[in-house]
Every structure is written in structure tokens, then in C-alpha cells.
From TrEMBL:
The keyword Cell membrane applies. Its main location: membrane. This is Branched-chain amino acid transport system permease protein. The chain crosses the membrane at residues 6-27, 34-55, 67-86, 98-115, 142-163, 199-220, 226-242, 249-271, 277-297. The keyword Amino-acid biosynthesis does not apply. It is a multi-pass membrane protein. It is found in: Cell membrane. Pfam families: BPD_transp_2. Keywords: Cell membrane, Membrane, Transmembrane, Transmembrane helix.
Amino acid sequence: MIDLLGYGAFFLTTALIFSLITLGLNLQWGLTGLFNVGVAGFVAIGAYTSAILTTPDDAARFGGFDWPILAGWLAAMVTAGIAAAITGIATLRLRADYLAITTFGVAVVVQLVALNTQSLTGGPFGVGFIPRPFGELASTPFWFNLTMLGTVVVVVVLAYLGLEHLSKSPWGRVLRALREDETAAVSLGKSARFYRVQAFAIGGAVMGLAGAVQAHFIGFIAPDNYLPTLTFQVWVMLIVGGSGSNRGALLGSILVWAIWAGSGAVLSVFVPTDQQARAASLQIVAIGVMLCVILLVRPQGILGERIRRRRTAGAAVAESKAGG
């Protein structure tokens, strides 16, 4: 029973870390309409920043400053936010399709840098000995997973409340206006590029924080952790939960991660060991089938914003005449 509860805590911790990434993407896409396909890159920036700053001294690579974990998390947010802002300044003038290609290129560059700069990131061997919160409890997995779950819950709740406040503030309403009708928003004196860079930077900072939290939860990171599959997972989580809804981002993350982990467990039971690596692609198939079903039943996602139909000027005039 204790082992089952410990696994449940581990599962929820992982799902909530994904939900933190999805919250950042929801700010960029759901609220602002920015098509970011470089999610994995910003997560990696946050993870490596915190790992380099908080690990013990290592003669084999740069870093090992032994900073406190909380300081590493804050530095991860700042670094990923700055990287996202620079990317935004350079690319947000592009249309959605070109923006997607550019952000994907950024993620590939980050992954290749992590893979080849061994003196900084450990190269393909990654970064180990990352300090873990409550690391003294690591010998008792149940209590360690439980305390980590509590820590991640606090981080996710704070991020959720902060993003909810921003989305309901005048700043958030400007972002929605830019998403729905940029011409009308600009005609009222709002700078589309200024607001979009801000949204892109804050979303990137949240993704960087998620990467740092994940790195300290696992205790080890490597370039293979930040492949395009990560971006695919996060996008599916947001679409299933509902784009434009922070609650949907949380729900979609937990639901999709449950299907991903569950399908992996089923494959490990029914597929021979020598075929499991090849059969792992069936996890993506399972997620794809679920995504198709969700889009057919609820195109806006489970908790997504309802699609608001714009009234034409003629319809508005006709309606006013009928009422008069």
C-alpha cells in the first residue's frame, strides 16, 4: 500500500511539473496566440541553468557553484525569460507558421549546444549530482516523493494564481484583444510587439522554472530529455485540457500524462523485452487517438474557452431595428 501511495505521489509530481510547462504555453498560445514550437528549448535552458549553479564543484566542466536550490530556480526563470524575450524580439514580427519554424529551430540549437559543449553541460553524459529538495529522505522513497509532491504543489499553485491574476488584469485583456483582432487593438494605441514580447518572456520563464524543478526532482539531466517529443506532449496537454484556460492546462497535463504512463506500463507487460523500444512509438499513437477523439467531441478542449461568434455590423443593425 505504501509503495502504491509513493508511486501515486511520484506520478502526480511529474504530471504537475508538466502542468507548469503547459501553463507557460497557455500564456503564449492560449492567451496571446503565439505559436511556440520550441517549448523543449526553454525548459532545457532552465534546467541547465539551475543545475550548473547548484551542483557541487566539478573539475570536468564549468559551474558547480553550489548555490541554494531556490536561488537556482530563480536564476532559471530569469535566464529562460531573457532567452524567450530575445527570441521574441527577433521573431514575433513573423507570421504564425514562420514563428513556429523559428522557435523549433531555437529548440534544436539549444539541444545541440547541450549535446556538444561538454565543458559546460556535460555533453551527452549530462549533469549529475543535482541537489534534490529533502534529499536526506531519498533513502525512503515514500516520504521523499510525498515531500516533493508538496513542494511542487506549492510552486504550481503560486504560478497558477499569478497567471490567473495576469490573465484577468487589463494586461491580459490587451493580450486577448491582440489575439482576436490585432488591427482594432493597435488602433487604440496598444503596441502589439511590446505586449507579445512580454507574454513570450513570462511564458518562457515559467517553462524554465518547470525545467529547473524537474532537474532537481530527478537529480540528473541530459540532452535526450529535451527532444521534440517533449514539445509534442505539452501541446497535446494544452489542446486536450483547453487552450486559453489555466484550469484546462492543469487537467490536460494530468490526463495526458496518465495515458502516457499507463500505455507505457501496458506495453511493458504485454510486449516482449526485446521489442519494447520499438513498441514505445505506440504511446504516441495512443495520445494521437485520444487527441482526435477530444477534438471531435469538444473542439475547444475539455475546459477551453467557448468560441465566441463575432456579430457582423449588419446583424447588429438588424437586431437594433427589431428591438426598436
